[in-house]
Write a structure and sequence with these properties.
heterodimer; A: mainly alpha; 3 helices; 80% helix; B: mainly alpha; 65% helix; 5% strand; disordered N terminus
């Protein structure tokens, strides 16, 4: 274990950083769940507006997903492009 | 982009854009990549479809049948979507929205046919978002007076106190970045996960990647296409303002 080169250390730390970066997925998960729950409640109250509610929910969820995707992008960059190497 | 962690494991995971051949222009080296080839295939397919649709509509019959029916269905669906969101001013934007809708949809679905989806390359999604960005601001300056735009940009505070102007300016420029990154990251993550599944589980899994294809390519691709077009339409509607 005492002959780890600097490049290997950076690669290992990049992998750990990538794992940490995708923790950003927690936020959008909670947000999308809240949006879906409220949409389900809205459909329960007003079943006639189901298509409108569904499209609004999908739009809001896609926007809420963006922050999680930024974390995912950071993880992908760390894993595959390796800017720190 | 060689020698990455997963690529060095010996398996044939193929998620990156590869350069096919390069050429020199004005002292810079440009690469023709797999994205160009996939994009060209998508554009060729769409062109053939458009020519066929044009010929079908020239010999259109009163009672639509077969191919004419499909074309009318697509056009009516796009018309209804754009007019439903943009209202009266929708007629001017059906062409643009319909074009990018069909293009992004076919690009996303091309992953089903073994291509690397062209939208999984940031060089494809950024120009799409920049086109939308230019369209948004062109219409903003066309339909609103400069004073209204200034009031809008200083929005929470009165217009003679432009403290919020820089923040609003940043949020304006965040629009194309978030539009393009959303589409890019969604399709890229689907591509990566499908490549991982295929390379790691190809020995034991033969049928259930199909379910993942249904999710990542069809469901996610359609949702992201819809979201891109819907957000573009919403931003343009906001830029046009209360015209009706």
């Amino acid at each position: 274990m005492d002959n780890i080169t600097g490049a290997e250390l950076i690669r290992a730390c990049s992998a750990i950083g990538a794992g940490l970066a995708v923790i950003a997925g927690i936020g959008p998960g909670i947000g999308q769940g809240i949006a879906a729950g409220h949409a389900a409640a809205a459909v329960g109250r007003n079943p006639g507006a189901k298509s409108d509610i569904t499209s609004t929910m999908l739009l809001g969820q896609a926007v809420a997903e963006t922050t999680g995707l930024y974390g995912l992008l950071v993880a992908i960059l760390l894993m595959f492009v390796q800017p720190l190497k | 982009m060689q020698g990455t962690i997963l690529l060095s494991s010996g398996s044939d995971i193929d998620i990156m854009v590869h350069g096919l051949f390069s050429y020199e222009l004005f002292g810079h080296t440009f690469w023709i990549t797999t994205t160009h080839v996939c994009l060209l295939i998508v554009v060729l397919v769409l062109t053939c479809f458009s020519i066929a649709a044009n010929r079908a509509m020239k010999h259109a019959s009163e009672i639509p049948g077969g191919f004419q029916n499909v074309v009318e269905l697509i056009v009516e669906m796009l018309d209804k979507m754009v007019h439903g969101v943009m209202g009266k001013s929708g007629g001017k934007f059906v062409n643009y929205i319909g074009t990018i809708f069909i293009f992004i949809l076919v690009s996303n679905l091309s992953g089903l046919f073994g291509l690397r989806p062209p939208t999984a390359d940031y060089g494809v999604t950024l120009p799409l978002a920049l086109l939308s960005f230019i369209l948004i601001h062109f219409n903003q300056f066309k339909y609103q007076k400069p004073k209204e735009i200034w009031t809008d940009m200083c929005s929470p505070l009165p217009p003679w106190l432009p403290i919020w102007f820089p923040i609003n300016l940043i949020s304006e420029f965040a629009v194309p970045i978030s539009l393009s990154l959303r589409l890019f990251a969604n399709i890229l993550s689907g591509t990566i996960i499908m490549a991982l599944i295929y390379s790691l589980l190809s020995k034991i899994a033969y049928f259930w990647p199909g379910a993942l294809h249904a999710y990542f390519d069809i469901f996610s691709g359609c949702i992201q296409t819809y979201v891109f077009c819907m957000l573009t339409m919403t931003y343009i509607s906001n830029a046009i303002g209360e015209e009706d």
